[in-house]
Structure formats: structure tokens, C-alpha cells
Design a protein that fits this description.
The protein is elongated and about 65 Å long. With 208 residues, it is α+β, with helices and mostly antiparallel strands. A 5-stranded antiparallel sheet has the order 2-1-5-6-7, covered by helices on one side.
Length: 208
């Protein structure tokens, strides 16, 4: 929920950019226009902070939006509520398990260079957006995982480059539980033990 952000967007659409630039002591109107455009085009407060917040040498993102609310006479307590809601959302997001699909092929290394395996390791994982899983019920999460499998099989035609033919997909939906699917999307097992080795490159003992 946005308490002040929507009001800020609405008022900015009706405001004179030059007046705002003068009030905030900007010499370059273009800089102000760019930052205001980022606010207006954002879907919500959270998206603005993550993707479009921007910065310049004069104000941080938070300082800039606070200055705007002061100039446009928007209740500052509403902006504080936006900050509280955003921080609460971020805390929940950090605690949310990173759900993912591991694509199992039964790969056994022969002469494949470790560099190539490390570079292609990400091909064996499909990470699911935590913004979605945080608010979805289990049946919806389940349906989404199956849809991802169907889409992946269609795109890859069942072959995963250097890793070989796809045998199954292991959906880790929380820290301790998983469901194994066949390539056609049927359930094969619950909480099965599947080896998920990773190829890691190291430089002087540090993973890169």
C-alpha cells in the first residue's frame, strides 16, 4: 500500500518542473525532470526505490522524495508510513525462502573442462520470484512450478546443453521440502534425495 506515493505522483503530473527545480535549488532542470519522471512512471513506492530511485550529487533518493512532499504540501506522516510499509515488506522478502527448480540430468563428469561447467551451472536452476511466492497460496505456487516446467521443456526440447537429457525437475518450495516432477509434469517423489553438485571456479581460494 502506498500512503503518500500515489498522491505525490498525482501532484507531480500537475506541477511546474521549473518551480520545483527552483524550490529544491537545482540549476539543471533536466536533472529534476529525470528524477520526477522516474517517480511518475513507477508502479509503486517499492519499484521506485529498487529500479528508478536514482541519485545525484545533491539529494539521495529518500532526501529527494522528502523534499518533494514538503514542496507539494503532502502530509509527511504519510511518507513515513510508506517507509514503514516498505521496510516491513523488505524484511518479509529477506525471510522468504528462495524457491527454485533444479533440473536433474544425472550428469557425470568425464573430460568436460571445469570452467565450462561452472559457466553453464546456472542452466540447471530456475529461480522463482520471491515477490510472487511470498503472497501465493501453495496450490498457486504448485501450478506456477508446473507451468515453468512445461515452458522449459518446450524451449529446450528436453536437452540441457552440456548437462544432457533432462530426467526430472526438483522443486524446492521451502528449506526442508521438495517435489520431484517428471519432464511431463507428473509427480515422481516427495522430499527425494537428489545430488545437486556445483562446479565452482576459485581464484587463490576465493570463489568467482
Amino acid at each position: 500500500m502506498d500512503f503518500a506515493f500515489k498522491k505525490l505522483q498525482q501532484k507531480l503530473l500537475k506541477s511546474d518542473i521549473q518551480e520545483i527545480a527552483n524550490a529544491l535549488a537545482y540549476r539543471n532542470v533536466g536533472s529534476v525532470q529525470k528524477r520526477i519522471d522516474a517517480i511518475v512512471k513507477s508502479q509503486n513506492f517499492s519499484e521506485w526505490i529498487h529500479k528508478n530511485g536514482g541519485y545525484d550529487l545533491k539529494y539521495t533518493r529518500m532526501e529527494f522524495v522528502k523534499k518533494l512532499t514538503e514542496f507539494l504540501k503532502i502530509d509527511s506522516t504519510l511518507l513515513e508510513l510508506d517507509f514503514i510499509a516498505y521496510n516491513e515488506h523488505e524484511d518479509k522478502l529477506k525471510r522468504e525462502f528462495q524457491s527454485y527448480l533444479f533440473i536433474y540430468t544425472g550428469f557425470k563428469r568425464n573430460s568436460e573442462p571445469i570452467f565450462a561447467l561452472a559457466m553453464l551451472s546456472n542452466k540447471r536452476y530456475i529461480y522463482i520470484d520471491k515477490e510472487q511466492t511470498m503472497v501465493q497460496s501453495f496450490p498457486i505456487k504448485f501450478a506456477h512450478a508446473k507451468a515453468l516446467i512445461e515452458e522449459h521443456i518446450r524451449k529446450t526440447e528436453g536437452e540441457l546443453s552440456i548437462w544432457g537429457k533432462i530426467k526430472s525437475y526438483v522443486w524446492h518450495y521451502d528449506e526442508h521440502h521438495s517435489i520431484t516432477f517428471s519432464p511431463n509434469g507428473s509427480i515422481e517423489a516427495f522430499n527425494a534425495s537428489v545430488d545437486e553438485p556445483q562446479a565452482i571456479l576459485k581464484l587463490k581460494g576465493v570463489s568467482i
